Amino acid sequence: MLTPPRLKNDCFALPPGVDWTPVDEALARLRKTLTPVVGQTTQPTSDAFGRILAAPALAHRSNPPGANSAVDGYGFTHAALTTGDQHLPLMSGRAAAGQPFAGQVPPGQAIRILTGALLPEGVDTVILEEDTSTDGTHIAFDGNLKPGANTRKAGEDVIKGATALPAGTRLGAPELAILAATGVRDVTTYQPLRVGVLSTGSEIVEPGASLDPAHTYDANRPMLLSLIRDWQMQPVDLGHVIDDRDTLRLRLNEAARNTDAILTSGGASAGDEDHVSALLKETGSLADWRIALKPGRPLALGVWDGVPVFGLPGNPVAALVCTMVFARPAFGVLSGEGWRNVIGFTVPAAFQKTKKPGRREFLRARINDQGAAEVFKSEGSGRISGLAWADGLVELEDGARDIRIGDPVRYIPYASFR
């Protein structure tokens, strides 16, 4: 089992003089800075669902392993056909899947063949059963048939020794299917990225723990833990810490021993009670990225005992947007999957908005029955209900924009961040 080195304290450092950081520039810096931080292991392919390949998986045999029929019908050699209608005598016997015909089919004769059966020697073309007539001893069909019709070539999908799947592939159901089909019984994978989620702030309490309006129920932790689980990474619940620097320091020390990356919410700005930023500053690793983003802006990046820390805003809407836009592609690199550019779609706007220049905006949105993007009725970052109402985000570029109904906008479904 191989474990890569931990990150250095200065990995998130910004160049001198940098103030506001555009979104694209911030993403480019993250991509350039990060490397995988998880170890590797070899395991049975059958146990590797959700894992990421750390090395290419090479096919142990071709798929398909031999030339075979794609349909139920009759096989023969195409070179023996003449022009016009064809009448071929049928050989006795047949070729079926798992029951190959052992003999040879002479030119000018045909044999019964079923879907998936290996092509007997002397057969290179198959006619679909429905396109023939037969009396049991002969078949007749229209001779307008291409050579190799209704057959599959050996290795036309994957050839033995070729790369069945490249390194960095996350193994889902389709990927496990091709590995099984090519005889790959063991794979080298990265260990799952362990992402710790920590809520901070003396005003935060567990849901239902208090009726005092001065207290806020913790929505970030369950949201982020579920998000990490949905991304097929390993969530680690780090709990909640009040505004006490010594307690937070102890919790971060513990987290660094049990996680590969840490998400904190709250305490990421520069106020008296922003202890996440203060502690990262003590280590010399704090990079206070003031990103030209709405909702969001403050994103405290740092390293605690070799483990990257993403200090998110305390507001759940901003925390989710920052996690999707910045943490998700970063986690791809940290986990060995590589950087993933999110996939968006151009759709008509079902809303009107005048946007000022300077910040990139992400609006909670969903697609209506006409295929247009609706946005939530309020842009207030405290309106958590908009996250549940939406099924994605509309991304508005950094510059000014005057959007009218029907104008093209970029819509990113939540599923694109998986």
Could you state the CATH homologous superfamily of the largest domain?
MoaB/Mog-like domain
Q: Widest sheet: strand order?
A: 1-20-22-23-19-15-18
**SSE class:** alpha+beta
| Dominant shape | elongated
Approximately how much beta-strand content do the residues carry? 25-35%
Show unreliable segments: none
Key descriptive features of the protein:
418 residues, alpha+beta, Molybdenum Cofactor Biosythetic Enzyme, Chain A, Molybdopterin biosynthesis moea protein, domain 2, Molybdopterin biosynthesis moeA protein, domain 3, 4 domains, 7-stranded mixed sheet, 7 helices
What features would you describe in this structure?
The structure is a single chain. The protein is an alpha+beta fold. It has four domains: 20-39 and 192-334, Molybdenum Cofactor Biosythetic Enzyme, Chain A; 42-63 and 156-190, Alpha-Beta Complex (Molybdopterin biosynthesis moea protein, domain 2); 68-152, Molybdopterin biosynthesis moeA protein, domain 3, CATH 2.170.190; 345-417, MoeA, C-terminal, domain IV (Beta-clip, Beta Barrel). 19% of the residues lie in helices and 31% in strands. A seven-stranded mixed sheet has the order 1-20-22-23-19-15-18, with helices on both faces. A hairpin with a 2-residue loop joins strand 22 and strand 23 (307-312). It is elongated and about 90 Å long. The mean pLDDT is 91.
